[in-house]
Amino acid sequence: MNTNRRDFIKHSAIAAAAVGVAPTILNACASPAEKITVALIGCRSMGFNDLRSFLREENNVECVALCDVDTKVLEGKAAEVETLTGIRPKTYKDFRHVLDNKDVQAVIIGTPDHWHANMMISALQAGKHVYVEKPMGHSIEECNAMVAAQAKYPELYCQVGMWQRSSKHWFEASDIVKSGELGDVHLVKAWIYKGYDTPYPAMPDSEAPDYVDYDMWLGPAPKRAFNLNRFHYNFRWWYDYAGGAMTDWGVHLLDFALHAMDADMPTSISPGGGIFYHEKGAIETPDIQQAIYAYPKHTMIWECGLNPGIGPYQKGHGVAYVGQKGTLVVTRSGYEVIPDKDGKQQPYFEARTQAEYGDGLDEHVKNLLSCIREGGTLNTPVEIGAKTAIVSEMGNIAYRAGQVIHWDDSKKQFNEEVANNMAKLNYNQDWKLPTV
Fold it and tell me: Which of 93, 108, 235, 368 lies in the 20 to 30 Å Cα band around 68?
């Protein structure tokens, strides 16, 4: 994690290929060997890594369409698919034309976050299975609408790209926490420190490149001038399109911070952090951030930073469960169980480590394709994707409100008006959230 930005982005793109997968045909296939046809919407980075995983030979999947607002990306990835498979997919700039294509049985949504809900709901309405990148939605309202849309179309599968849900060692770690071996666990920490060596510079607004349909890229987001610091990879540092590291990595790590503790929604969220490394106007989301989530019997703390590379327990990312008898730290590389000592200075148990098993993305893909062909249960259904995305959004809402906020789970809303106002997005007049 303490590599320079270029190396980090390269490695995270590879790890992202540890990410996700997509669904398929309208009705379960008659045979597990039947080919499934997919389309990718949003062809850069994570989206194309997802597609690569789909196109593994044993999966018997064909990519029939690609869609992107950037013509250079679109044509480059179409050529890459042709090299990989021998078949050049159709190309589109408008995702609605993809959904009209009857040859497409499933869509992979690899766009910036602000497009996820609109495209996912529209795809289900068009009779397509969906694989949607994380975070599933970009607001509490969107997440709830996406869950409602899935409930309306139960014959269709929608998998969320939280691929750690298909990685065995995360569940082993959770089982240890649940077993009581650590004693009572009253503190859980989750963090990501990205290790970017230099801050982003502020960039002036400019004309969008002539090979980019910028209006379509903005979609439901507020209209504003093009800026390189808000485009492609950097969209994640602006609230119009994403939620910073809080939602980018938060949904992966907070997912298991919640799962191992059998935790649901917090009672309150306290904010911390700010923009300390970057000059004014370079980014909007904080480069150092904390969120403290209160639960009846434990506290959950989120930490993230763009420039530091070393986090708690000398790990760039992870989740730590701190118990009275010991601590368990889990990352994508594996987990470590660290004993505390009793009154006689003897360890409560033997320290041990477990490396990851090399699973994750591939198992996520197999799970998805198996469900579509034969029926079954998804590893990351929309209910799980919504829960973790909402908890992540709560951290950002507290930060933006600049105060402690309180959640009333019986009413599914905050006690503070300023927080409830941020539970919905301010869409521009050309794009509205589809009615479910």
Answer: 368
In single-letter form, the type of residue at position 54 comes to F
**Cα 306 to Cα 253: distance, rounded to the nearest angstrom:** 16
Q: Which residues contact 30 (CB under 8 A, 6 or more apart)?
A: none
Query: In this structure, are residues 139 and 146 in contact, taking their beta carbons and an 8 Å threshold?
Result: no
Classify residue 206 by its DSSP letter: B
Lowest mean per-residue pLDDT among 23-27, 94-98, 214-218? 23-27
In angstroms, what CA-CA distances link 290 with 108, 245, 267, 293? 32, 11, 17, 10
pLDDT in tens, 69-114: 999 999 999 999 999 999 999 999 999 999 999 999 999 999 999 9
Helices assigned H by DSSP within 228-326: 244-248, 250-259
pLDDT tens for residues 397-407? 999 999 999 99
Using only C-alpha atoms, the chain has a radius of gyration, in whole angstroms, of: 21
Mention every residue, 6+ apart, whose C-beta is less than 8 A from residue 245.
192, 194, 236, 285, 289, 304, 305, 306
Distance CA 434, CA 430 (A): 12
* DSSP, res 226: B
Residue 87 backbone dihedrals phi, psi, to 5 degrees:
-125, 130
Task: Kindly report the pTM of this predicted structure.
Answer: 0.91
DSSP H stretches of helix in 86-139? 95-100, 116-125
